[in-house]
Every structure is written in C-alpha cells, then in structure tokens.
UniProtKB/TrEMBL annotation:
Pathway: Cell wall biogenesis; peptidoglycan biosynthesis. The keyword Zinc does not apply. Residues 149-261 form the L,D-TPase catalytic domain. InterPro entries: LD-transpeptidase, LD_TPept_cat_dom, Peptidoglycan-bd-like, PGBD-like_sf, PGBDSf, Transpep_catalytic_dom. PANTHER family: EXPORTED PROTEIN, L,D-TRANSPEPTIDASE. The active site is at H219, C236. GO terms for molecular function: peptidoglycan L,D-transpeptidase activity; transferase activity. GO terms for cellular component: extracellular region. GO terms for biological process: cell wall organization; peptidoglycan-protein cross-linking; regulation of cell shape. It comes from Kribbella jejuensis. Keywords: Cell shape, Cell wall biogenesis/degradation, Hydrolase, Peptidoglycan synthesis, Signal, Transferase. Residues 1-31 form the signal peptide. This is Peptidoglycan hydrolase-like protein with peptidoglycan-binding domain.
Amino acid sequence: MRGLMVRKFVSTLAVGAAFAALLTAGTSATATTSDVRATPFEVSGELPIYPKALYKNGSSGGGVRKVEARLVQLKLLEKRYQDDDFGTMTRSAVKKFQKSKGIPPLGYVDQNTLNQLVKVTHEPTQTELYPPAPVVDGKKLDPRCATGVALCIDKTTRKLRYVVDGVVKMQMDVRFGAVKTATREGSFTVGWKSRNHVSTLYDSKMPYAMFFSGGQAVHYSSDFAARGYNGASHGCVNVRDLTKIKTLFNEVHVGDKVIVYRS
C-alpha cells in the first residue's frame, strides 16, 4: 500500500513538472514571437500626417484656374493647360514647384504650397485668367479657342482655324455633315489620329483623320476638293486643301481641343 502511494506521488510530481515545462516553453515561445512582431503604427505620431488638400487631381473651379495662372507665370505650366480643371499637367507643375521650395512633392496644393506660390507670383489679371478670344476678319472666335491649342471650327463661316495660345496659325475651308448626319457641336478633344484611314461604315478614304467625337473626324476629302459645297459629309469635318491638312495633321496632338460652334 505504501509503495502504491509513493508511485502516485512520484507520478504527480512528474505530471506537474511536465506541465510546468509546457508553461515555460509556451511563455518562451510567446516572448520570442513578441520580440519579432512588428509594432503596429499608432495615430499618436507614428502614422504620417498629410496636410489638407485645397486643390487636387479632379478639383475644378476658379481657384484652380488662379493656381494654374500663377504656375504659368513661373513657366512651370504651359498656357494651353490653364483651365478650370486640376489634371495631370497641373499636378506635375505643382510637384515641380514644391520640389523647388523644399516642400514634400505631394502633387496637390495645401495651404503651405499656396502661401509659397502667392509669395513668388503676382495676383493674376483678368486677361491672364481669361485671355480675350482671337479676332479674325473683325469677328471674335469662340472664347474656348483663346487658350491652349485648339481646332476652332466655325460652322457659320465654314472655316477651321488652328489656334495656339490665342494666335491663329492656320486657316482652311471646311464642310460638314448633311441634315441627317449633322456634325456635332460642342467642346471635344482629339481622341486618336489615323494617317491613311478608310471608313469601314461607308468604305471611303479618310486621309489624315483626327477623330474627336465617336466616328466624326477632321480629315481630307477628295470629294470636297472636286465638288466643293455641292456635297456634304456623313458627319465629319471635310478639308479640301491637301497640303494644309498634311501640315495640320503633323501639328495636332491627341488631347488637343476641338471646338465646333456657330458664330
């Protein structure tokens, strides 16, 4: 009986020792894991605090135009990109300015960036903000043609004018779509270009095509060259001067404005 009790006591000690060993091992493992685990960031100073954006990519309005006008003064932004919209080119110009002033190049305008920009520029004038529309033959072009690069297309005078920063560089005769296939009016941009395009819809050649609204494009038309205004397009803006359209095609870039209007 005494031997049985001794064996139970020894067995209990062994189990206890084993359990203690497991606890010790567990504690050690936990400590090791804790040693290598990354300490989480906390809001109390460990996370980066970014300044509030006053104007950023996608912003629009008069405030954006003023910022852009100041960037134009510093020659960090081309005048063609001065409008009411904060886009890629404005963001790039803001980053250049921030780098020049030792400000983190976040690419958006916070209060500090705006303050620094105001210090080194003058208040934009009305003319700087809204340059007057070019005047051709005593008539003003559409105001949207006054800034940047634009194919300014007047359906009343049947003229296309290539305008750069308010200066008319080229002018050419054009014709438009018939009543049922009217050329759309409005503000567009050149979406893509095709030097030797052929219409799959009408099986007709459209050399030097610059597409601006769906299937509508500015392009050379041999029919217009031969028949003049006796014919009409299927909605495109036809040019009859082959030499001029070749030059224009090389000058115009994807993204340039296309303004179709009536004077």
